[in-house]
Specification:
Length: 301
């Protein structure tokens, strides 16, 4: 089934003559109002690419296990957790879904691992101390059976070892309780939770989460530059009028949470990108307006 308005990715370069003409058209035509039939939506969307090796390739489809990429005339697979990128585009779609809620949070899984490593080391130290103390106590008993001259030294060594173990355990627990172990850690994971209400059936839907943030550029004396992470996630078939709750996590590179913005994009393997209430510069259009813009883009039949 083909989207009758197309999932038009028709403006790859916003400085192009096509974009200038498009701008003139939308400034001279009103969008669909409540009294006119809405046939589709125009919005600022994005073409997705997934990384294989050191290059990015257009995404053809996404399923539970893989992202399918267009590599020349062939379709290849990468893991569904692959690093992605995007190219902004003006999109025309006849499909729409409402995002009822959209929550996200970041965490440092590395800090969790640091705490686990610290506790493991604490248990190893405690076990070693117990073994050493047992040996010292055995030596103390042997000395006590034969001579009392060295008994205080052996007993003191055992007591000191016990105290060192207790002090180390207290130190580790204090680091964990105060967050000192994770304080210097950067976030490396995003957890996403949202509810979606489609206005159309959306077979084989998937989404992309875009995390943009400020990163100090060392080559520019620490002046912040805008960088972004993009990750995709398969959703499945969405039914018209049925609310679905989607929850997932994705691994990111480590980053500091500075001026962070998170965007959610929706796609269908069958229809391409789908408009949502979170889509940027979202405008409803009539069939005539859609046909006009498709004609300008050279995509009309």
């Amino acid at each position: 089934m083909t989207n009758r308005l197309g999932s038009a990715r028709f403006l790859r370069n916003f400085a192009s003559p096509t974009f200038l003409v498009f701008t003139l058209v939308i400034s001279s035509h009103s969008y669909a109002n409540n009294e006119e039939e809405v046939a589709g939506y125009v919005f600022l969307g994005a073409d997705l690419r997934a990384k294989q090796g050191d290059k990015f390739f257009p995404i053809a489809a996404v399923d539970k296990r893989n992202i399918h990429i267009e590599k020349g005339s062939r379709i290849r697979k990468v893991e569904n957790t692959a690093v992605c990128s995007l190219t902004n585009n003006i999109i025309l779609s006849e499909n729409f879904a409402e995002i009822l809620s959209f929550d996200y949070k970041f965490a440092s899984m590395s800090s969790g691992q640091a705490e686990a490593d610290a506790f493991a080391q604490m248990f190893r130290t405690e076990a070693l101390a117990d073994a050493t103390v047992s040996k010292k106590e055995w030596e103390f008993q042997q000395v006590n059976d034969t001579s009392h001259d060295n008994a205080p030294d052996v007993e003191a060594a055992a007591a000191e070892m016990k105290q060192d173990s207790i002090d180390y355990n207290d130190y580790v627990e204090e680091l964990v309780d105060t967050g000192s172990l994770s304080g210097s850690m950067k976030n490396d994971t995003i957890f996403v939770d949202f509810e979606i209400l489609p206005q159309n059936d959306l077979p084989s839907a998937y989404c992309a989460v875009v995390v943009s943030y400020d990163h100090p550029d060392e080559e520019k004396n620490g002046i912040p530059v805008r960088e972004a992470f993009v990750r995709a996630r398969y959703i499945g078939d969405l039914k018209k009028g049925e609310i679905e709750r989607i929850r997932f996590s994705r691994k990111l590179s480590q980053f500091q949470e500075t001026n962070v913005q998170c965007d959610l994009l929706l796609y269908s393997n069958e229809f391409g990108q789908v408009a949502t209430n979170l889509s940027k510069a979202l405008k409803p259009v009539t069939a005539a307006q859609a046909a006009k813009w498709l004609s300008l883009s050279g995509l009309s039949e």
